[in-house]
Automatic annotation (TrEMBL):
GO terms for cellular component: membrane. The keyword Oxidoreductase does not apply. This is Unannotated protein. InterPro entries: TM_pro_TauE-like, TSUP/Inactive_protease-like. Signal peptide: none annotated. It comes from freshwater metagenome. The keyword Membrane applies. The lineage of its organism: unclassified sequences, metagenomes, ecological metagenomes. Keywords: Membrane, Transmembrane, Transmembrane helix.
Length: 310
């Protein structure tokens, strides 16, 4: 098996982001395979889904050891997501299997990425409304709402099966809407663990109906596995304040590229997104320095806990 060094680097970057935020496995890796490595969209989806199946347990395992997983939440999400993920993998072959399939999948993926970017923005706004200082407590098994949770799993599972996107970016946002007091640690930990059976079902479907490439899967995993464990170690201890704006920018640019707007418009939009992201990060950094919580913003250390330790 020949490994691609560039794919190893791409896998490491995406793996770190997935471990840190619970998002980006399909939303970033699939567009990278399509846009940077010029892969057929259906092959990219199949390869990415199978790579995610092997990668995510390493990140989820960190959260299991730290006790930041709500197992009832994971269970009800899986009841909805597993059968729908397999169905999505079947549909991408049977319904979108004609000569126009590549264009259809690229367009579908572009719109899903656009929705994912909007979903992450919504999550940030909802988190801001909750307030940053108080850390939410673990919600406990009794607080889980089975039917709405199962519906979230079903929607996310179908989208993952079709596009490889959504096991993190879309499901996390829907969970935040349903469980606004769920802590960030527990949300990311539960999402990484529930993604294992979800992506597993999609991976089985793609192995049967799709066209995964072993060389691509191997290259991505060599970089992604150590990186996702590093990212998960950060997220199990704190927040992901600075990575979210950059992730949103990458999702927006990827979605625009896949949707293939006019070239001049695309360049202007990319420039606008890049400038807005850079300005936003600089302002956030300056604000944190003024408030004396730069350390909290980077690694999520609660200032009150520091004072208690003193």
């Amino acid at each position: 098996m020949d490994l691609n060094p560039a794919m190893i680097v791409a896998g490491a970057i995406v793996g770190f982001i997935v471990g840190l935020t619970g998002m980006g496995g399909g939303a970033l890796m699939t567009p990278v395979l399509v846009l940077v490595f010029n892969m057929d969209p259906a092959t990219a989806v199949s390869s990415d889904v199978i790579a995610s199946l092997i990668m995510k347990p390493f990140g989820g395992g960190v959260h299991v050891r730290r006790g930041t997983v709500n197992w009832r939440l994971v269970g009800w999400l899986s009841v909805g997501s597993v059968p729908m993920a397999f169905l999505g993998a079947y549909l991408i072959d049977s319904v979108f299997g004609g000569p126009e399939s590549a264009k259809i999948i690229k367009t579908m993926l572009g719109w899903v990425l656009l929705v994912a970017a909007g979903a992450i923005i919504a999550k940030m706004l909802l988190s801001a409304r909750r307030g940053i200082a108080p850390n939410a407590e673990p919600m406990g098994g009794a607080a889980v709402r089975p039917l709405p949770t199962m519906l979230i799993g079903a929607i996310g599972g179908l989208i993952v099966g079709l596009t490889s996107v959504g096991s993190g970016s879309l499901i996390i946002v829907m969970l935040l809407l349903l469980y606004p007091l769920l802590s960030a640690k527990e949300m990311i930990g539960s999402d990484l663990v529930q993604a294992i059976p979800l992506v597993g079902a999609a991976a089985i479907g793609h192995a049967i109906f799709g066209n995964p490439q072993v060389e691509v899967i191997g290259s991505v995993l060599v970089g992604a596995i150590p990186a996702i464990m590093i990212g998960a170690n950060f997220s199990s201890k704190g927040s992901d304040r600075y990575i979210k704006p950059a992730l949103i920018a990458v999702l927006l640019i990827s979605s625009l590229k896949l949707l293939e707007p006019n070239k001049g418009d695309f360049n202007l939009l990319v420039l606008a997104i890049a400038v807005a992201t850079a300005v936003g990060l600089v302002l956030m950094y300056a604000s944190d320095r003024r408030k004396g919580r730069l350390t909290e913003g980077l690694v999520g250390v609660d200032a009150s806990s520091l004072s208690e330790k003193r």
